[in-house]
Amino acid sequence: MKKQYKIILPIIIVAGMLFGFKMVNEPNPEKDKILIGLVRYALKQGHYEPQLIDDNFSENVFTDFIDALDPYKRFFLQSDIDEFSMYKNLIDDQIKSEDLTFYKVVIARFDQRVLESQGYYKEILETPFDFSGEGSFNIDYDKKIYSKTTTELIKNWQMQLKVSTLSRLYEKIELQTTMTDNFDDNAEDSKTEVAEIKSFEELEKDSREAAEKSLDDLYTVMAELDDTDWFAIFINTLTVQFDPHTNYFAPKDKKRFDISMAGKLEGIGARLQKRDDYTRVAELISGGPAWRSGELEVGDLILKVGQGSDQPVDIVGMRLDDAIEFIKGSKGTEVRLTVKKIDGSVQVISIIRDIVELEETFVKSSVVEVNDRTFGVINLPKFYIDFNERNFRNSATDMEQEIARLKEENIEGLLIDLRNNGGGSLKTAIEIAGLFISDGPVVQVKYRGEKPDIRSDKDKQIQWDGPLVVLVNELSASASEIFAAAMQDYNRAVIIGSKQSFGKGTVQNVLPLNNYFKYPEDLGALKMTIQKFYRINGGSTQLEGVVSDIAMPDKYAYFEIGERDEKNPLAWDKIEPAEYSPIDIYENFHQVVNDSKERIADNPHFIIIDENAKWLKQGRDNTLVNLNFEGYKEELKERLKESKSFEDISLYESSLEFNSPKYELPIMEKDSVLAKKRGLWHKSLKKDIYMEEALTVLSELEVRKHLLVKN
Q1: What's this model's pTM, rounded to 2 decimal places?
Q2: Average per-residue pLDDT in the chain?
């Protein structure tokens, strides 16, 4: 998976994150030992396919932990790796005895090496780079070896910083050239414009300063990490040996996961970011308490936080996570924010906290006309559910309601867009499948060593019995694949999109570790693979995903995207099929599929998309960066010239018009932010060639005259 990130930007980011590393608080050996013991026991007892914790396991942890800390080989020396190697076959024994020696030794040396390197980038960036000579730098770090000496290490730093500076320099020169070319020679202020043009040397200096500023800023973010964060990295090098979806969540990561799954949080409804020493308002969530109050604005800096009438707490210089803890709170409580406005004034703003729904997580729908017939489009970004609140909205009830609303628009067919839907709740996936079939099995779920459990829809009521198309891509995963596979196995829908979906055929459970060990501090949680799921036809979606009935070219076509590109994925296998009866609903299923395949093969836009995918793969496979500025510029200009042949992809626009359903119109009249979001979504759908082809397929499907029931 790491090979996907061999680009210049991550070099800059990682450098900034790791420079000047220093633990904010001291390690808690007792807590860390408890965590190791709990995780090891849970994995042994509960994981679907437990791994032997032996010398081979030990060697893999050894490699992965060091690589996680220093993926670009800019901190550790070869002598450090040689010294660490004494633990290569001992880590398994240390895990079993809750011995943290390996972790402590590596982290201590990491701390030392990063502290030693703090001055490297500042000293290197003080001197101009020479971009006139020959040479190149390979950014395929898997093939690089660790530096043998400090001199070699500094040379490695110098080369990486030269690459990042070169990238910035090229961008600055191109921007200045564009501005100059567009300048009107007859303008009265031409002398001013000419005076602002900088020389190559000046722009090179600006580029070095920008690289340094980026590193400084990102170092500030990394400096806020404490031992809990670093130890979590170590634990996750253990869990990833079992499979890529078994992860340890430190306490704050568990909170983020819960919010993501539920699609809601309690607080003021603002996204915050760190800006120097200040907590800055980055976005107001539409419909949230802060948005409704109308006083807090994007760009405001929060100086103090008070709980009701209590004495406010100064949060300037505070860690962002800690500041957020002060700001958020239970529904109905008051928070008073002392903020510095953009104009420099200071105000105290009172906000009553409430439940904030993250609308981008939820179902949304649109109505579209195709050949004078009305069709509905439903976008489902996630199979969301709140496990803690009985009455909170979830994706199944929302989907049922949205279909009912679209039926009031007299739609003749329904398209469900699951692109980029990474999954979520298995329960809601089964319930949503039940909206389109009478009753019967939807998925088989299997614990290790046990017979599969067939999960069924038991409600004979059908919410939608008309034509159905499901749109997927390589990032449609897990619960998305359960739903799409069930619709495919029942012949209920046409599956259209990428060649195959993500290929995640496993089920995880989140275990709060404090439930298993009474400890005064929060121990976090373990998300562990406990089951595999199988289609009702007996096949697994693991690795293979759901193969589309109609495959459309896309930019990822020649990339290894999905479960098969993850580290240590579980294998594909097959079990006995469940008893089910496919539905003979469509008069012309095969004809529609074949016609679509022919259209796609002959469509010049899809042909260009396929050529572009090959070109992108070629570009990513080239990891050599030319360090001569003129050579670098010529190579990029050649790539730019080649890219122009693919411009039609972004310029594409269909004749379709997408609109919000009638129920949403009065809501948007009161909510300008929501109206803007919907407008942007509809604009993107109009330019979406995949959506257009899927709707064409939908419009061609003919349902048999009989009722939708099982044979």
Answers
A1: 0.79
A2: 87
